[in-house]
Amino acid sequence: MSSESSKKRKPKVIRSDGAPAEGKRNRSDTEQEGKYYSEEAEVDLRDPGRDYELYKYTCQELQRLMAEIQDLKSRGGKDVAVEIEDRRIQSCVHFMTLKKLNRLAHIRLKKGRDQTHEAKQKVDAYHLQLQNLLYEVMHLQKEITKCLEFKSKHEEIDLVSLEEFYKEAPSDISKAEVTMGDPHQQTLARLDWELEQRKRLAEKYRECLSNKEKILKEIEVKKEYLSSLQPRLNSIMQASLPVQEYLFMPFDQAHKQYETARHLPPPLYVLFVQATAYGQACDKTLSVAIEGSVDEAKALFKPPEDSQDDESDSDAEEEQTTKRRRPTLGVQLDDKRKEMLKRHPLSVMLDLKCKDDSVLHLTFYYLMNLNIMTVKAKVTTATELITPISAGDLLSPDSVLSCLYPGDHGKKTPNPANQYQFDKVGILTLRDYVLDLGHPYLWVQKLGGLHFPKEQPQHTVIADHSLSASHMETTMKLLKTRVQSRLALHKQFASLEHGIVPVTSDCQYLFPAKVVSRLVKWVTIAHEDYLELHFTKDIVEAGLAEDTNLYYMALVERGTAKLQAAVVLNPGYSSIPPIFQLCLNWKGEKTNSNDDNIRAMESEVNVCYKELCGPRPSHQLLTNQLQRLCVLLDVYLETDSHDDSVEGPKEFPQEKMCLRLFRGPSRMKPFKYNHPQGFFSHR
Amino acid sequence: MERAVPHAVPLGQMEVFQALQRLHMTIFSQSVSPCGKFLAAGNNYGQIAVFSLSAALSSEAKEESKKPVVTFQAHDGPVYSMVSTDRHLLSAGDGEVKAWLWAEILKKGCKELWRRQPPYRTSLEVPEINALLLVPKENSLILAGGDCQLHTMDLETGAFTRALRGHTDYIHCLALRERSPEVLSGGEDGAVRLWDLRTAKEVQTIEVYKHEECSRPHNGRWIGCLATDSDWMVCGGGPALTLWHLRSSTPTTVFPVRAPQKRVTFYQDLVLTAAGNSCRVDVFTNLGYRAFSLSF
């Protein structure tokens, strides 16, 4: 309704025109205050309830007017227009009222809002203030708790106890009179004391540190000094070598030996150690050395990869050779045998020097696969020996050490396990190889600490030092005795072959001054020949004629009488006596089986040998026995009872002084010589 | 192929010495214990060994049964003769006679009960005693040996009562002629002399070597063994073993045994002889049959 809007516009125009003018007026002219119209003030005066009633009434009037207008318009007519106009003017008034009311409402609303807003703002401000205050309170509370919880660092320090403090602290710090009462002062004082102490300790600490530095420096210096000593010592050692040699104290040499000894197999090592120890402790004539190639010994223990490489190489080589020619079974077996009997590359040499400057050289080998030791022996003398024919076997390397201990002939391997190994490669016995490998005597095994018990065969026999040590001294002594007795025999044989029985002056008392029977022959005979003799059966049956013994034949003659003596020489001479068996050819053949006196003569030489031993080391036994044999033959021949039926004088006149010619039921001749009276009697 | 020589143990010095001793051993005398179970034997080293006959002769006899039960050193010289009384073993050798108790003899460390030495004339050498003879009726012992005399010793008192002289050389053997009583002695001088014990005089002399049937000059004239059976006598030695009739002093039988005889005994009309010179005592259960040997 444009008319209505224009109506509305009008008041607005008015209003708007009026307001700025009022405003201007407000500012420019304060006197005209009461002149302008303030709707806001009017609002405060009016009652909103009444306004609401007015609004309702107005709305009702409008509605009524509109309805009348409507009616009028619908009825039409002329008067209508006036009425309508009237009503229209009324409704315009009502519209004006409504507008006013609307304004008022707006103003009220605005006021209300403003008031609320204000109030709200106030409340907000208070709220804000409250929060601020609360916040501050909280903050303050925190601060308070903080303050309350605050631990001063001084409480973390462990102070000395009060009593100690009062005891130790000097009085100017402890200030007892003040601090006793005042805990604050007390704590202060204690802290002071603590500080004091700490300062002192810090001082000490610094001092100690500096000391330590000094000492460390000194140590460094000394270390340097010592390390510079080592090369000097070495040079001194080098320089002392000639002095060592001059003084016969080869320490360096010994050191080198010990180095080499590390590569020895265990039994040889045991032997080396024990022999060296024995030599140094008891026997200066024993010297020990190691021979052989150390490199080869080291090569035995090459790591497996290398050896596998070698194997593959050698396999390749072998393949090549097999293409050309297959090795025969015999050659293979031979190689296996050689492998089984292989010796360790290192060997131990022992040299035993005897009183007369003869030396026994012993070389000990170790057979690795058989786990036994062997020895080769050689005797050298100061002067060249002319070997008499019969003495061939005495000093031969093969037999000089035979039966050093009874029964130890060294022809069989002492390790029972070896037999199975031998069977595999077709070796019958070690005897065939002893010339090359050396003899596996039992005492050699014992010196190497190897013990092969017969009752409980062990899987591995380990070299034992105590076994070696317990046998060392006895064996060395036996070895020396053996060499010396053999050398003595050697000399004696040379004399015997010339028909002279060499009786030394200190044994002369055993025999009468005049001995007529003479030794005319002295030869060696073979074992088989001895067994074939008809007058040796008893000895053979008694088991005294072994193949390890040496056999000799002596011939003693006087006039027509010929006495044959078969001699069994045990390798253990002279502790084991030679055994004589006699056969006399004179007026028939007489042996111990048909003539008791022959038996008595044998007894005189075989059983009563201890009288004939002579001074120690009883090397004169054999020669004294032979001399006694000559004396016995003299007695026998001279005391022969004269046979009255035969004519002619006795062939041998009695020259020996005898008390009685016959004694006892067996009518023995007087074979016992009595010194110094010089007569013969019976035992 | 070499001849196998049997031996089990390697021979050390001790074993060799013992073997040699045994090889050169001579058993000179033996005597049976009064109970008959034991045999004592004496050898040339002066040792006496006692064997257990019952063990050795039993059916379960082993090697050890033939070894001595006990062996001890009885004399310094050879034990030339032994006899047994009913309680004692008397042994003699180098000039002394010793007595041992049979009851004690098996114990180790047995000591002699007593020892006596007859009064000898010579002092240079102690003569041996070759023969012992018990005279039960007189309870005396007759010793004879190197000093060419027969000595009688009373077993109760130990005193030497008589010395019978007559032999010109040492006496080998004695025999007792029970009935008379007479003692026969044979000696190195080749004569068998008969002595009367009551008169202590030589009654009869038989010079054996002078008789051609039995003399063997190459052996010598010595009489080694004697046995008598009152009327008869067997003697041998250098001359051949001969049986004599004593009354007539004539040789009746000459036994064809070659070797000089050492011991002879009459036993139930059999003559047992031994010419042993080994360490063994041969036990004969029958003439000429040697059953086994006891070894020292």
From TrEMBL, chain A:
GO cellular component: THO complex part of transcription export complex
Domain of life: Eukaryota
Composition skew (Basic and acidic residues), residue ranges: 22-42
Keywords attached to this entry: Nucleus
Similarity comment: family membership: Belongs to the THOC5 family.
PANTHER family from the UniProt entry: FMS INTERACTING PROTEIN, THO COMPLEX SUBUNIT 5 HOMOLOG
Name listed for the protein in its UniProt record: THO complex subunit 5
UniProt organism field: Ailuropoda melanoleuca (Giant panda)
From TrEMBL, chain B:
Organism: Ailuropoda melanoleuca
WD repeat residue numbers: 164-205
Example GO BP: mRNA export from nucleus
Pfam families linked to this entry: WD40
Family: Belongs to the WD repeat THOC6 family.
GO cellular component: THO complex; transcription export complex
Gene3D superfamilies associated with the record: YVTN repeat-like/Quinoprotein amine dehydrogenase
Entry keyword annotation includes Repeat: yes
Protein name (database record): THO complex subunit 6
Lineage top rank: taxon: Eukaryota
InterPro entries given in the database record: THOC6, WD40/YVTN_repeat-like_dom_sf, WD40_repeat_CS, WD40_repeat_dom_sf, WD40_rpt
